[in-house]
Design a protein that fits this description.
The structure is a single chain. This protein is an alpha+beta fold and 158 residues long. The chain has one domain (14-150). The chain has helices at 21-40, 46-50, 65-68, 125-157; strands at residues 14-17, 56-57, 59-60, 63-64, 71-74, 77-80, 83-89, 92-98, 101-103, 109-111, 116-121. Helix 1 (21-40) runs parallel beside helix 4. The protein is globular and about 45 Å long. The protein starts with 13 loop residues before the first strand and ends with a helix.
């Protein structure tokens, strides 16, 4: 179970929301992070995985949408996220916050908090669920691709 930051508010957005899909999505994000970093030595780019999803917003004016939400502050307390991805829907906006994955007690790294969802406008639960499922599909495809690469590398070294 990942820590959920229920008290963290984003100005002009409702949330945070933690639909049931978020727990599984966070675990998948953690797995991909660990495999990606092992293979390439760098952290995965969620932007590269989600940019083909309908409604994804790259820039707002001259500012990268991802940069607007990378640090959320309430008073003097700030929370940083590894990535935040903004999506425009017919009824509003959805922002998905992806946590940093950091050193844990074991050899692998772990997410120290849950992915969080915020909305603006009249976004329905179904719209959020569909978006989370689309992101999950992209992450599953990435995981399977990384596993295949990892397997090939291990087979060649044996």
């Amino acid at each position: 179970m990942y820590k959920k930051l229920h008290e963290l508010k984003v100005p002009r957005y409702q949330g945070p929301f933690f639909p049931e899909e978020v727990e599984q999505l966070t675990k998948l994000w953690e797995i991909i992070w660990n495999i990606d970093e092992t293979l390439s030595g760098c952290v995965p780019s969620i932007r590269e995985l989600v940019r083909t999803i309908e409604g994804w917003v790259y820039k707002i004016g001259d500012i990268f949408a991802e940069d607007i939400f990378s640090k959320v502050c309430e008073g003097k307390k700030c929370t940083r996220w590894q990535s935040s991805q903004l999506f425009q829907t017919p009824t509003g906006k959805i922002v998905i916050f992806f946590p940093w994955v950091t050193d844990g007690r074991e050899k692998k790294k772990s997410a120290h908090r849950s992915i969080a969802v915020y909305t603006k406008g009249k976004v329905s639960e179904k719209e959020v669920k569909v978006l989370l499922e689309r992101i999950q599909l992209r992450l599953l495809l990435r995981r399977d691709k990384l596993k295949a690469v990892f397997q090939n590398l291990t087979d060649e070294t044996i």
